[in-house]
Give the backbone structure.
Amino acid sequence: MPDWIVEFLKVTGTAGIVFLIFYIYHQSATKQMNEIIAKTFELLKTMIEQNTMQLGYLQKIDTEVSNNLWCPYVKEKTGVTNDK
């Protein structure tokens, strides 16, 4: 066993071992939480992009329905033509 480990145990005793175990556990838990947070933000970013895209499509559909350009049945019944 290296001399510095023996000296560390002599000076700190059981408290040093407990602190060392706590420190290693804390580092591991912190790393895992940071990874989870990063993945969550990536997922959130993707969801926001999809919501923005869907909102654009819904606005387009709303405009076409409001202008009576979307439903062929209504166009046929009202005689409205859409020559683009």
